[in-house]
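Session log. Operator J.P. requested a structure for one protein chain; no other inputs attached. Running the standard single-chain path with C-alpha cell output.
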Amino acid sequence: MFLLREYFHKMKGRKKSPPLVSLSEIFWSWIGAFFGIGTVAYINYNMLEGTDLVMVIGSFGASAVLIYGAIDVPLAQPRNLVGGHIVSAFAGVTCYKLLQPNLWLAGAVAVATAIAFMHATKTLHPPGGATALIAVIGSNKIHALGYLYVIIPAGMGATIMLVVALLVNNIPQSRRYPEFWF
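Structure written below.
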C-alpha cells in the first residue's frame, strides 16, 4: 500500500508553474516562428511545387516552439535540432521499409528507435519523434522519398529553420542563441 501511495504522490509534481514571459519574448518568438515556418513553407509551395519533394513536415511546428520560444533549453540547441531530425528521419524510413506491412509496429519501433538514437548521439529533440512517425504514417509522397526524406525535408528544413533562429533570436539584447553548438 505504501509503495502505491508513493507512486501516485510523485504525480503531484514538485514545482510551481513558471511565470509568464515578457511581451518582448512573446513578440520575438512569434517573429521567429513566422519567418522560420514561413521560409520552409514558401520553399515547399513555391519552389518545390510540381516535384516529388516536400519541405514542410508537421514536426517542424514543434521545433519552432523550441527554437523560437524556448531558446535556452538544451533540446532547442542546433545539434539537437538538426541532428535530432536527421537521426529520427533515418530511423523512421528504415522502420517503414522493414516493417511496412505492419504500420502499427513500424510506427512504434520508429519512435522508440529514434529516441534511443537521439540519446546515443546527444541530439534529443522531441519533435524528432514526430519526424520518425511521419516517415511511417506519411503520404505516398513522403514514402516515395525513401532515404531522401533524411536530407529533404528533415535535414534541410531543420537547417533553414536554424539559420532563421540564429538571425532572429540574436536581434534583441535580451536573447542569445545558441547556448552551445556541440
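Operator note: The two ends are 46 Å apart (CA to CA).
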